[in-house]
Structure formats: C-alpha cells, structure tokens
Amino acid sequence: MTTTRTTPLSLYGFLRPRPERAEEVERILTSFVEPTRQEEGNLQYHLHRHDDGRFFLYEVWRSQEDLDRHNALPPLRAFLENLPDYLEEAPEGYFDTMLSPYPWAAQR
C-alpha cells in the first residue's frame, strides 16, 4: 500500500566554505535558487549568508519524491559529490517533517 504524504518536508542547514572558495560557493549556491524555485514540488528555497561566513539553506518540498527528483539533477549532484573540495567541514544539516503545513501545498 502506498501512502500519500500531505505534510511538506523541510531541509535546512549550514555550509562553511573554504575561505579561498567562498565566492565560488556563493556563485554556485546562488545559481541554484531560481531554477529550484521553479521545480515541481518546491514550496520554498532560500539562501542566506550568516555573519560568520557560513551559508544557510532552507528548503521546503511538497514530498520526498519531489526532493529526490531535485537531488538527482546534474548540477546539484556535481556540487554535492565535490563538497569536501568546497567546504572546511561537513555540512550541518537537518531534515524534518513540517508541523505547520501549507494549506496550498497539495495544489502546487
């Protein structure tokens, strides 16, 4: 039996770039924003720069399937496969079920 998830998934975390690659990491992450926002099932996608130089990503997806499809895209795969080259430390990430669902989430 297949169950349909009605609660969006949120993914968020910090990335600390290597100082010599910080501008490159910012360009790469920024290049993901608008295309990701256009993807089916994306409800929110935000990129922030923290005062200490880390980048903070906040994403909300309608379903696990939508997130899986996003994570399989070649530009994102290439970045993720080379994370150690870009970052000083492992990403600090969290993946949770949103407790305050969007009433319109199922429509998008």
Explain how this protein is built.
With 108 residues, the chain is an alpha+beta fold. It has one domain: Alpha-Beta Plaits, CATH 3.30.70. 33% of the residues lie in helices and 26% in strands. The protein has 4 helices and 4 strands; from the N terminus they run βαββαααβ. Strands 2-3-1-4 form a 4-stranded antiparallel β-sheet, covered by helices on one side. Strand 2 and strand 3 (55-61) form a beta hairpin. The model has no long low-confidence stretch (mean pLDDT 89). Keywords: Monooxygenase, Oxidoreductase.
Concise synopsis of the structure shown:
This protein has helices spanning 22-37, 64-71, 74-81, 83-86; strands at 9-15, 42-49, 55-61, 92-97.
Strand content: 25-35%
Class computed from helices, strands and strand pairing: alpha+beta
Number of helices: 4
State the CATH topology.
Alpha-Beta Plaits
Report the count of strand segments. Answer: 4
Indicate the mean pLDDT: 89
Element order, helices and strands? Answer: EHEEHHHE
Rg, nearest Å = 15 Å
The low-confidence runs, each spanning 5 or more residues with pLDDT under 50, are none
Assembly of the depicted chains? single chain
CATH class: Alpha Beta
CATH architecture: 2-Layer Sandwich
Q: In what order do the strands lie side by side in the largest sheet?
A: 2-3-1-4
Task: Give the CA-CA distance, first to last residue.
Answer: 24 Å
